[in-house]
Amino acid sequence: MIASETRCRRPLTGRTVLICLIAFFAVISIVNGIMIRAAISTFGGVETGSAFQAGQAFKYDIEAARAQQSRHWQVKANVRRADGGTLVEIDARDESGKPLAGLEAVASLHRPTDRRGDLAIVLGEEGAGRFRGTGPAAIGQWDLLIDLSRNGERLFRSRNRVILN
Phi, psi at residue 138, to the nearest 5°? Predict the structure, then answer.
């Protein structure tokens, strides 16, 4: 006889099958719980709080974009890392190339994937149509949002993808 045949095998009973099934589904449930918690805790939120209100504002946004395009403004932005932070410089000129005076500028950096990391950049006017400001250090891929307004009315909006190293 062969030595392996002399060993006594445990019979497969109903109790063994039950324990194996319970262990299998317990492992599946634990992994599902971990994955659900990870998904919920890392989700930064929906793009729009209310789709209805966003739809109502769409007509206004289209009119503002057409008015902005008809002005033919030339707005250039320079974004770079400097002095341990992020430096944003904006130069705004009209269609003939003259600096635009009397504007308020607001800039912010938005993470493309997660709102929780958005950063506001405080801009100061350095002269007619020239703005400069710094914000916290921001390495990575960002959307630079620039708003130019006069007397509370937004006249220009720009959103551009930038990569800061």
Answer: -140, 95
Adjacent-strand bridge partners of 92: 75
What domains can be seen in the chain, in order of their start residue? 73-164 (2.60.40.10)
CB-based contact 165:139 (threshold 8 Å):
yes
Question: Which residues are within 8 A (CB) of 105 and not within 5 positions of it... i.e. 6 or more apart?
Answer: 90, 92, 123, 125, 131, 146, 147, 148
- Given a cut of 60, is residue 115 above it in pLDDT? yes
Q: For residue 17, count other CB atoms closer than 10 A to its CB.
A: 10
pLDDT digits (tens, 9 = 90+) for 67-114: 999 999 999 999 998 888 889 999 999 999 999 988 999 999 998 887
What pTM did the predictor assign?
0.66
Element (H, E) at 162: strand 153-164
Q: How many Å separate Cα 98 from the centre of its chain? A: 34
